[in-house]
Amino acid sequence: MIKKIYPIVCLIAIAGLVLCTSSASAQQLFRLTQYFQNPMVINPATTGIEGFMDVKVGYRQQWSGLDGSPETYYVSAHAPLRFNSESTSILNNSLRISNPSLYNQFDSDTQYGSKSVKHGLGGYITSDRQGIFAQTSGFASYASHLSLSNRLRLALGVSAGVTNLQIDVSGVSVIEPNDPTYLAYQNQQGQTTNFDLNAGVFLYSDLFYVGYSAARIFQNNLYSDSDIIAQQQLTHFGMLGLRLNLSSALLLTPGVYVSYDGVNPVTYDVGARVKLRDIFWAGVSYRNTNTMAGMAGIYINNTFNVSYSYDYGFSGINNLQAGMHEVTLGLVLFNPRQVAPYLW
User: Fold this and answer.
1) Sign of the alpha-carbon torsion through 42, 197, 138, 265
2) Is-contact 280 304, C-beta < 8 A?
3) β-strand 324-333 against 53-61: which pairing, if any?
4) Closest by Cα among 264, 26, 321, 22 to 167
5) What pLDDT shows up at residue 321?
6) How far is the C-alpha of 179 from the C-alpha of 6, rounded, in Å?
7) Rounded-to-integer distance, Cα 40 and Cα 55, Å
8) Is there a contact between 257 and 209 (Cβ–Cβ < 8 Å)?
9) Which residues of the chain have pLDDT under 50?
10) Which among 210, 195, 220, 164 is positioned nearest to 343, based on CA atoms?
């Protein structure tokens, strides 16, 4: 009975944190094309979802060719607290047998159907630079993965950390030296550091996943000057994907990624990826900012993997630059059973 009530209580708590905050205007969070490579940064409920320690190092450059173009760096790592209980899906990683129903009796011991509660820990550091603006964050994440049925899990996660915002006021020229916003930045030496909280839920099985998360829940003030009202913006994220086994060697994953901060228009990515024998994958996506992206990745061996994506826009400033590049390097540790990645 306690196990059934626990997910409901956590969901109500997370919803309360989100609904009790108000909207305000501030700098947007960075956005990754390969969000599925590092979902913990977006949704802390995915912390520990893999059956191994997943380490990622990434770099993204927007508007390549323009001075002061946005750049993002990140490093992250997360893992389940126990590795020896993990195993890969028998149905998707074994030879065919004459009676497929026999797979069902083993499913209760897979990463989707295990009756025990699975816990995950992780953390990440990100650095985002846009011209004279810079944002550096460090967060620690925790998630609890609860079994709802033989093939379904619900994960609840939270991440807490600090964010430092900086502006190079020495490189700014203003028409009005007494501008209150400019003075507020000067009074703080052009920077501010705040503690913040992110939370999320993630429902998944070997057939689909759907998740919601909220970032910047505390909506901290950006200035200590009481005459200036500016807060970090609460941002909502949503992820939805299907996992379609086209054959024993080919997996198709169509998906949608949505974000909204209450001020700017809703942004969404729609795309699909196909993976061949857990060795190579490729995909395409469309963003509603008139941007297309192509991407591909390869598993060099059981430990190392690398992926690359290229975004190209068809309107506005996108016509003046060479596109957006994103590279992700991955490291798989503590994976003796060779569990295939769930999100890749």
Assistant:
1) positive
2) no
3) antiparallel
4) 26
5) 55
6) 51
7) 11
8) no
9) 1-26, 85-94, 96, 100-110
10) 210
Read off the tokens for 274: 């196909």
Amino acid at 55: V
What's the rounded Cα separation, in Å, for the pair 307 and 299? 9
Q: Which residue has the tokens 């159907």?
A: 113
Shortest CA distance to 217 belongs to which of 16, 13, 14, 17?
Answer: 17
Query: For residues 25 and 28, what is the distance between their CA atoms, to the nearest angstrom?
Result: 9
d(CA 192, CA 135): 10
- Phi, psi for residue 186 in degrees, rounded to 5: -60, -40
Length in residues, the chain? 344
List of domains in the chain = 2-333 (2.40.160.40)
Distance, CA of 241 to CA of 75 (rounded, Å): 24
pLDDT for 66: 65
For 12-71, the pLDDT digits (tens) are: 333 333 333 333 344 556 688 999 999 999 999 999 999 999 999 999 988 766 666 789
Question: Coil, helix or strand for 204?
Answer: strand
pTM above 0.85, yes or no: no
| Cα angle for residues 24, 28, 33 (degrees, 5° grid) | 145
